[in-house]
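Module 6 notes. Inverse folding takes a fixed backbone as the condition and produces residue identities as the prediction. Think of it as a translation problem where the source language is geometry and the target language is the twenty amino acids. Below is one complete input and output pair. Work through it position by position during the lab.
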């Protein structure tokens, strides 16, 4: 199981929110080195500066394989082979099937394709070394749904599916895989995301449960990695919601429609 002490990690979306908290907790728990990789290169550099000598910041579009390869190379050069990859960058965009292809592409590229291309780069080396750890930040939306945003719900379900597939395929060959599925977390994504979807999606998140701090989520994530669990649930009630969903899908869908009716602004 991953031991954060002495580990070398790359965290995408590390300039803000959950990614920043993951990077900070890794450093606090004795990681050898953490590369903070973010589309916001200045933000990544700022966070790395705050975290000290064991951190580096790099501008990186997690949905571009060359950028991710460069972030991995930086980690390896500065600290050694990457033990932990946190596929955490994500976007909260879109509303429904009427969204432009560009919106769907963005959600799918950042929320799931980025995980595929990172795994493509990492798995061969991890198989050769006999170890490696892939942490996917999906969402409770990937286990349930996202009222108010089809691109988010679909892309996060795909991220969970890919993480499960990695765990099934490589779990016996030394690769640890975990999937972080929070509900609301107090980050700019929740306060400012889903902009073109209006507030329905963000309101659905806020009314469904507690909004946690990024640090609380990072603690749950690292505890879960140490324990070797696949599904990491900072909001434990998500396990119950998922059981309800699979036990009686029609009843669960009726409950989701009730939630949606309560939030609709168009009558
Ligand atoms: N905040 C929540 O309520 C919540 C709930 C469940 C899951 N999540 C997931 O947690 C993850 C982190 O989100 P957050 O809430 O910390 O948001 P955030 O907005 O605080 O941070 C997201 C970071 O990702 C970066 N980013 C966006 N696109 C990128 C790309 N293509 N390449 C590299 N970096 C990119 C942004 O610049 C930003 O720094 C996301 O995957 C999100 O879907 C968030």
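Target side of the pair, the amino acids:
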């Amino acid at each position: 199981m991953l031991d954060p002490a002495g580990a070398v990690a790359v965290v995408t979306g590390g300039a803000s929110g959950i990614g920043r908290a993951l990077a900070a907790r890794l450093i606090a728990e004795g990681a050898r080195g953490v590369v903070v990789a973010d589309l916001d290169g200045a933000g990544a550099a700022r966070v790395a500066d705050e975290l000290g000598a064991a951190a580096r910041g790099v501008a990186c579009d997690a949905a571009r394989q060359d950028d991710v390869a460069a972030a991995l190379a930086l980690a390896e050069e500065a600290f050694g082979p990457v033990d932990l990859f946190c596929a955490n960058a994500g976007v909260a965009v879109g509303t429904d099937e009427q969204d432009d292809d560009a919106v769907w592409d963005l959600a799918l590229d950042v929320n799931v394709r980025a995980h595929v291309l990172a795994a493509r780069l990492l798995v061969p080396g991890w198989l050769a070394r006999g170890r490696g750890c892939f942490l996917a930040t999906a969402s409770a939306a990937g286990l349930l749904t996202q009222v108010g945003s089809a691109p988010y719900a679909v892309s996060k379900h795909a991220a969970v599916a890919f993480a499960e597939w990695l765990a099934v395929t490589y779990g016996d060959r030394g690769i640890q895989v975990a999937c972080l599925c929070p509900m609301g977390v107090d980050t700019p994504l929740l306060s400012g995301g889903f902009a073109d979807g209006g507030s329905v999606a963000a309101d659905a998140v806020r009314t469904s449960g507690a909004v946690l701090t990024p640090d609380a989520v990072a603690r749950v994530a690292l505890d879960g990695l140490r324990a070797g669990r696949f599904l990491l649930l900072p909001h434990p009630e998500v396990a119950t919601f998922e059981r309800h969903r699979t036990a009686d899908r029609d009843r669960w869908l009726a409950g989701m429609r009730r939630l949606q009716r309560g939030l609709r602004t168009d009558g």
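Reference fact for the lab report: Residues 101-129 form the longest helix (29 residues).
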